[in-house]
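# step 3/5: fold
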Amino acid sequence: MATAMTEILAPTEPVDLLAKFDPIIQTREALLAAGVEDPFNLVMEQVLSPTRAICNGRDTILLGTYNYMGMTFDPDVIAAGKAAMEDFGAGTTGSRVLNGTFRDHRDVEAALREFYAMDHAMVFSTGYQANLGIISTLAGKGDYIILDIDSHASIYDGCAMGNAEIVPFRHNDVEALEKRLKRIPEGAGKLVVLEGVYSMMGDVAPLKEMVHHRHLFQERRHGWGLLRLEPPEVRSAATGVPSLRLYRRAAALGDGLERDLDPQADARREQARASVGEQPHTAQGPA
C-alpha cells in the first residue's frame, strides 16, 4: 500500500526589493566621507549665461551643458517663449495625441522639415523621449537592432522597451557592423542605430561607409549646429535609403526626429508611446 509523502517546506524570508541598493548606498557614503562632492546636491540658484551659473553659492562654469550654441539666452527665443505662455498657458496638460499638440508644435516641425529638406518631422519634449518612442515603435519582438556599443543609454532603453534583439558592434567599426549584419536571420527586420557625434567619446561616426543600410536610425543631437549638416558624399550615399535622424534643437527647448522617403510617418506618430502618452496598453496597437 503506497504511503503518501508530504513535503514540508521551510518558510522563506520575503524578498526585499530595496536590498539591492545597499551596496550602492555604502559606496556613496564612502565617497562622501572621503570628500567627494555629491553631484545630486548641485543646485543652480541663478543662471548667468549659457555657460555660467551660481551653483551652491559659487560662480560656476557649466561644462556639462548641452546648450552648445547658447540659444537659451537668445532674445528671440526668450520672446517666443513668453508669447507661447501668454497664448497657451504654462503647459500642454496632456499628450500630443489627446490635447497637447499646439499650433507652435506644428510650426516648428514645418521649420525643421524645411531646414533639413525632409518630408516629415516629429518633435518630442526630450531626446530621451524621442529615442524611447521611435526606436521602440520601429523595432519590436522578433526584430533586430544593430547598434554601436557606445550608444547612449536612451538608445538601449528604446531597444528594451520595444523588446527587440540587441546586437552591438565595436565602436565605429565598419567591418564589425558588416559581420553582425550577416549573422541576422534572413528575412528578419533590421534597424541599424548610429550616432553622428558620440559626445562621451568625442568622435564622429564614419557615416559614408555605414549610411547605405536599408533602415538606419541616426542620432545627431550633439552635432546640430556644430558640424556641417550633411557632407555631400554622405548625402549621395544615402540616396534612396530610408533614414531617420534625431536632432536636439540648439535652443535646448525640444528635440525633433526627421524622416525622409517615408509615407508612414503619421502611423509611427500614433504608435510612439512617448508621444501618445498614458493610454491603456491595449490601445497602443501592436506590440
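# step 4/5: annotate
The chain is about 35% helix and 20% strand.
# step 5/5: archive (pending)
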